[in-house]
Q: What sequence folds into this?
């Protein structure tokens, strides 16, 4: 997908930056946002994939083994998944690199974050409609200790060559370039799931759900002497 939405709700942006709408700073942010939306070309790479095998703490998807107890439990009863990479795009990075001033660079970074969020929401809505998925959830390598970031190359390998397709590459430490990119596996589900429910990090600006200190014990902990749910 190379035609994802890149618009920004500037009112929400200003609220997140704690800026008075009538201030000079707010006007600067609006101007930056307009520039960003003109150059932004967010993209997504994904595929429809199928689960070959499930163990007590791993799943095999199209021949690639991913080791995660949480992923395994979340995919219980699921046979089809959608691995993906969504990026705000290198064009936006080039634009932000040209922005002068430390404060302006911070604003530009937040603008890129908003554009990535818009593009990601558009991506999810489109594959949900196209494949009749109904309610969905996602897991992302590196978001939880249970599914570490070192699994990222496997996800990229499952998708082929994201660098060639949408301009996203991995560093030696498995971080994505451009940084305003997100990868994961989307799947249909009947229950509500967010990685945040299992993450105890405090004051996280991207938190989407409250931390549930009992969820691991209730749903994901393996019983002693048992390898399956």
A:
């Amino acid at each position: 997908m190379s035609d994802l939405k890149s618009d920004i709700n500037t009112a929400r942006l200003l609220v997140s930056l704690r800026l008075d709408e009538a201030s000079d700073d707010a006007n600067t942010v609006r101007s930056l946002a307009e520039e960003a939306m003109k150059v932004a070309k967010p993209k997504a790479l994904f595929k429809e994939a199928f689960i070959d095998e499930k163990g007590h703490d791993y799943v095999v998807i199209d021949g690639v083994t991913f080791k995660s107890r949480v992923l395994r439990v979340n995919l219980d009863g699921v046979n089809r998944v959608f691995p993906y990479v969504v990026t705000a795009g290198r064009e936006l990075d080039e634009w932000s690199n040209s922005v002068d001033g430390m404060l302006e660079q911070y604003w530009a970074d937040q603008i890129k974050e908003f554009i990535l969020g818009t593009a990601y929401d558009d991506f999810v809505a489109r594959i949900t409609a196209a494949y009749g998925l109904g309610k969905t959830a996602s897991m992302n390598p590196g978001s939880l200790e249970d599914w570490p970031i070192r699994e990222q190359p496997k996800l990229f390998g499952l998708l082929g060559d994201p660098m060639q397709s949408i301009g996203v590459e991995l560093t030696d430490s498995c971080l994505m370039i451009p940084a305003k990119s997100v990868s994961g596996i989307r799947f249909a589900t009947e229950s509500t799931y967010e990685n945040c429910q299992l993450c105890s990090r405090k004051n996280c600006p991207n938190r989407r759900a409250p931390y549930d200190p009992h969820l691991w014990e209730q749903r994901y902990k393996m019983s002693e002497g048992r390898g399956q749910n």
Observations:
- Helices lie at 10-16, 24-39, 69-74, 90-97, 102-130, 152-159, 162-166, 215-220.
- The first helix runs from residue 10 to 16.
- The chain is about 35% helix and 20% strand.
